[in-house]
Amino acid sequence: MTPCIALEKASTLSLGSVRQPVVTRYQIGVIVFRLYRDAEFQGQALCIRKDQPDAPDFNRALANLTQSGVLSQTRGLPAKSVFTILGKEDATPAAIACSIDPFAYLSHLSAMEFHALTDRLPKILYLSTPPPAQWKEFARQRMLKDLGEDYAAYGDSGFPPLTRVRLQRIKGRTVQLHSASHLGAFKVLKDSPVRVATIGRTFLDMIRRPDLCGGIRHVIDVYQEHASTYLSLITAEIDTHGQAIDKVRAGYILDEVCHLDDSAIRQWRQLVQRGGSRKLDAASAYSSQYSERWCLSLNLDEV
User: Which of 64, 73, 117, 144 has its CA 20 to 30 A from that of 264?
Assistant: First the structure.
């Protein structure tokens, strides 16, 4: 007769196959709950027989995993919310952040660094994630996907739900969180928990928030150096997800600064507003220096 396997050992082996350096209470809860409901691990029966676990069962399982050293508290992150998996302590801040928030992705200057668009090394980790209401709905959908027909039973058991963990610093890096739409915004790295804004979205974000991308002067430098290489990706992204003002700002830079020509850029010229007060950099004061072609205040000392 095959001996049964202890819940702690089955949980430990399950955590070993997780492709991320840290786990949240919810992720641990799903692992433990599934083991209880399946009553087996890889064909071997569990020593515990209980179809419907409860919150004390989860707390005991978590305590055993931390006491044995399989899981440890993650320094600098909310206590009892995030745990580092044994042997994965050297993870990058980006990998940790994307493991904690399943809907976050690297954006702005951090995405520019990832895509080798900037030579600056940001001291801040820039992340984008959905706004609270949308995040909550995404969490509900993720739980439905993870738990399937066990979704209601999991909730009734008192096991931890998927909730947002507030991120302020990770391994000494300050985290700056920006609320943004998810639609077509990021790509997932192979064999990694890291998600990063696409090239096109990164260029769109430069126009929208130059203050999070090294400043408008740096944004213009990046456009001048790299826009010709990624022109089709930039115009496709801005055409699909950009607002009229995004298209005018990008159009000015691509046309008058980078001297690039494209049917999308020509189309964007129809969006100019004569006599308006649009500015190249939304966060800076209005300037009398002006692009007649794009009806845009060039609120810089020089471009």
Answer: 117
More confident residue, 219 or 48: 219
Range of the domain at 127: 7-104+120-192
Q: Do 55 and 13 fall within a single domain? A: yes
Q: Which of 173, 192, 211 is the last residue of a domain?
A: 192
Residues 157 and 218 occupy one common structural domain: no
Q: What is the pLDDT of residues 104-158, one digit of tens each?
A: 999 999 999 999 999 998 899 999 999 999 999 999 999 999 999 999 999 999 9
Condensed to tens digits (0 to 9), the pLDDT of residues 205-259 reads 999 999 999 999 999 999 999 999 999 999 999 999 999 999 999 999 999 999 9
Q: Provide the whole-model pTM.
A: 0.91
Query: Distance from CA of residue 122 to its chain's centroid?
Result: 17
The full length of the chain comes to 303
163 near 139, Cβ under 8 Å?
Answer: yes
- Rounded Cα distance between 172 and 175, Å, is 9
Rounded CA gap, 116 and 179, in Å?
A: 24
Q: Which residues lie below 8 Å from residue 82, measured CB to CB, with a gap of 6+?
A: 22, 23, 24, 73, 74, 100, 165
Closest listed residue to residue 165, CA positions, set 88, 99, 89: 99
Longest CA span, the chain: 86
Q: 3-class DSSP state for residue 117?
A: coil
AA identity, residue 222: V
Measure the CA–CA gap between 189 and 186, rounded to whole angstroms. Answer: 10
